[in-house]
Amino acid sequence: DGGITQSPKYLFRKEGQNVTLSCEQNLNHDAMYWYRQDPGQGLRLIYYSQIVNDFQKGDIAEGYSVSREKKESFPLTVTSAQKNPTAFYLCASSIVPANIQYFGAGTRLSVL
Amino acid sequence: QQPVQSPQAVILREGEDAVINCSSSKALYSVHWYRQKHGEAPVFLMILLKGGEQKGHDKISASFNEKKQQSSLYLTASQLSYSGTYFCGIQRSGSQGNLIFGKGTKLSVKP
Q1: Closest residue of A to B40, CA-based?
Q2: Residue A40 contacts B where some CB pair is shorter than 8 Å
Q3: pLDDT tens by residue, A36-75
Q4: How would you write chain B as a 3-class SS string?
Q5: Does residue A90 contact residue A43 with C-beta atoms inside 8 Å?
Q6: B9-13 and B105-110 beta bridge pairing
């Protein structure tokens, strides 16, 4: 079955630590996205990539970094510069930008 | 800017109808609607394009008013399974294609 796999489902970060959230898709989609979801805030775009080896900042990129070395993979690193990382993180993909987005099950990140 | 969704929350009894609105201050090219159940991933419902017709799926339909830069989602004869948070995502005219999502409308359907 095609889809998007995010791991881990739950993640805990210590002070000053970088953590990486995984996102893999086997839908052969060109575009991939990372969103942050806080209660009552909707989905806010962190980074997006329209093609391999290229990505752009979204509205709230500070304290995050990404890479897109393979079409299937778009990992997100939450760096120690992100002072309020506790949130639900969603990865999505679409065939091309602005087409239907398919979401992973999400990773819930908490701070120890 | 984020589109504005209204209402923020609504509680229905099974069989009742609801309308959720999504408004933008800028010209729109398309509007996407998604539903998210608690703790799960958002799921695509439908997409409306500028100049397109009203869409529908089962008892859920949506319209796109270009003059008002607004889309409305209509849920008819609601079922318990309709409960969740509904998000609209807008693509502005002339944009590169990324969606900007609203804050969501929480719908609760009671027996």
Answers
A1: A105
A2: yes
A3: 999 888 899 999 999 999 999 999 999 999 999 999 999 9
A4: CCCEEECCEEEEECCCCEEEEEECCCCEEEEEEEEECCCCCCEEEEEEECCCCCEEECCEEEEEECCCCEEEEEECCCCHHHCEEEEEEEEECCCCCCCEECCCEEEEEEC
A5: yes
A6: parallel
